[in-house]
Write a structure and sequence with these properties.
Number of domains: 1
Radius of gyration: 13 Å
Largest sheet: 8 strands, antiparallel
Order of helices and strands: EEHEEEEEE
Shape: globular
Strand order of the largest sheet: 6-5-4-3-2-1-8-7
Strand content: over 45%
Length: 122
């Protein structure tokens, strides 16, 4: 493993349905993050088998992988279909650091904002 593999925790940010956000809805994933706070796609190629995700929403959890497709990033829960994939919105342009926000289009087709709560060594 490499020292730049990080565990990133995302929690649902403020939405109309959850004006205070929702810490019970989010993701924890492992990714190689460089010193500038961006996912390192070269290291992802080397360590992709370690780049797992756990999605949590209430009592439900789902596990999958972080995938790099073209310039985009997505969570993939079943490698035989793309129907369950959850793509990030321009993750390649975001700095992954606590307090920042990212957007993910979830299974239901709705893009939601998520706050980066923590980034720790994996």
């Amino acid at each position: 493993m490499t020292s730049n593999l990080k565990r990133v925790r995302l929690e649902l940010a403020r939405t109309t349905e959850y004006p205070e956000g929702n810490s019970g809805h989010g993701y924890e994933f492992i990714a190689p993050i460089n010193n500038n706070g961006h996912i390192d796609s070269d290291d992802w190629k080397k360590f992709r088998q370690h780049c797992r995700v756990t999605r949590f929403a209430g009592d439900e959890t789902q596990t999958g992988m972080l995938r790099h497709v073209g310039r985009g990033w997505r969570f993939d829960y079943n490698d035989t279909t793309r129907d369950d994939d959850e793509p990030f919105f321009k993750l390649d342009r975001h700095t992954l650091m606590p307090g920042a926000y990212v957007s993910i289009t979830e299974h239901d087709g709705i893009q939601r904002p998520f706050k980066i709560v923590s980034v720790t060594p994996a």
